[in-house]
Design brief:
- Helix content is 74%, strand content 0%.
- By secondary structure, the chain is mainly α.
- Helix 1 packs antiparallel against helix 3, helix 2 packs parallel to helix 5 and helix 3 packs antiparallel against helix 4.
- Bound molecules: fe (ii) ion (FE2) (2 copies).
- The site of one fe (ii) ion has 5 residues, from helix 1 and helix 2.
Length: 173
């Protein structure tokens, strides 16, 4: 049975993952409005990833005999000044999430909750990948500096991203 303090913190992270999904869906809508359907697709896939993360927390809390309590999700911003600014905000957000995952890990250790520590390990690795993915996009956006032709080419590439749920072996901690 999971302890109350850990249960509450995991419920908090479930909310943070749902907010992430909400934020990226808002960015997808922003890119649609900017006539960049490829970038919008990239953000829709990112939304699916975050929903997958949220579901992982949901399932884990229940598996441990805890209670899932849903909280209200903050409204995300609706507009960004440019694709570069949106991706910079994405990187900052992912860095914040990494901090939240680290805090959860420290709590699991403090509470001597081995199962949660192992569960959270998957997210520690996932955050390395998340930050790396976003940094790669930012690196590609930097030299474009608003050139419509280059942005158009990059949009085509961003349209190729598909959501692939991680394999069960990798996903099951
Ligand atoms: Fe996430
Ligand atoms: Fe994320």
């Amino acid at each position: 049975m999971i302890r109350k303090k850990m249960e509450e913190a995991l419920n908090g992270q479930l909310n943070a993952e749902l907010y992430s999904a909400y934020l990226y869906l808002s960015m997808a809508a922003y890119f649609e409005s900017a006539d960049l359907p490829g970038f919008a697709n990239w953000m829709r896939v990112q939304t699916q990833e975050e929903q997958f993360h949220a579901t992982k927390f949901y399932d884990y809390i229940i598996e441990r005999g805890g209670r899932v309590i849903l909280r209200s999700i903050d409204a995300p911003p609706a507009d960004w000044d440019s694709p570069f600014v949106a991706f910079k905000a994405t990187l900052e957000h992912e860095q914040k999430v990494t901090g939240l995952i680290n805090d959860l890990m420290y709590l699991a250790r403090e509470e001597k909750d081995n199962a949660s520590e192992i569960f959270l390990q998957w997210f520690v690795n996932e955050q390395v990948e998340e930050e790396d993915n976003v940094s790669t996009v930012l690196g590609q956006l930097k030299p474009i500096k608003g050139s419509p032709e280059d942005l158009f080419m990059m949009d085509k590439e961003m349209g190729q991203r598909v959501f692939t749920p991680p394999a069960a072996a990798e996903g099951d901690a």
